[in-house]
Amino acid sequence: MKIDIPGNGPLEIETIILDLNGTLRVGGKLVPGVAGRIEELRKKCKLVLFSGDTRGDAAQLAKELGIDFTKTTTGQDKVKEAEKLHPEFCAAVGNGLIDLELIKRVRLGIVALQGEGAHAKTLLTADVIVPNVNDALDLFLDEQRLIATLRE
Question: How far apart are alpha carbons 76 and 73 in whole angstroms?
Answer without folding.
Answer: 8
